[in-house]
Amino acid sequence: MKDLFETKSRPIPITKEMVREAYRKVRSNKGSAGVDEEDLNKFNENLSGNLYTIWNRMSSGSYFP
Fold first, then answer.
1. For residues 62 and 54, is the Cβ–Cβ distance under 8 A?
2. Backbone angles phi, psi at 38, to 5 degrees
3. How far apart, in Å, are the Cα atoms of 45 and each of 36, 37, 41, 48?
4. What pLDDT score does 12 carry?
5. Which of 17, 29, 43, 53 has the most Cβ atoms closer than 10 angstroms to its Cβ?
6. How many CB atoms lie within 10 A of CB 19?
7. Are 41 and 35 within 8 A, CB to CB?
8. How far is residue 3's CA from residue 56's CA, in Å, rounded to a whole number?
9. What is the tens place of the pLDDT at every residue in 33-52?
10. Residues in contact with 34: Cβ distance below 8 Å, sequence separation at least 6, in sequence order
11. CA distance 14 to 57
């Protein structure tokens, strides 16, 4: 029963380049506002800060979309 709650997988390190590439894909698809209702134009106003925040939260495991 103990094995049901153990994970055998390793976490995948999230790189800044992975976050940048994901942003490029969203931008190319003209992504719409997410759950936070922030559209791409608003996100771009502080692009480097926003991408850093997302990367930091994802890499630490504290990001929940």
1. no
2. -95, 120
3. 15, 15, 7, 9
4. 74
5. 43
6. 19
7. no
8. 31
9. 677 778 888 899 999 999 99
10. 65
11. 10
Other beta carbons within 10 Å of 14: 18
Tokens 């995948």, residue located: 12
Which two three-digit tokens encode residue 8?
């055998």
Residues 6+ apart with CB under 8 A from 57: 63
| Cβ atoms of residues 43 and 50 within 8 Å | yes
Q: Which amino acid is at 12?
A: I
Token couple for 47: 């692009």
Both tokens of 6, joined, read: 């153990």
At 49 the pLDDT is 95
Give residue 1's pLDDT band: very low, low, confident or very high (50, 70, 90).
Answer: very low
In degrees and rounded to multiples of 5, residue 36 shows phi and psi of -85, 0
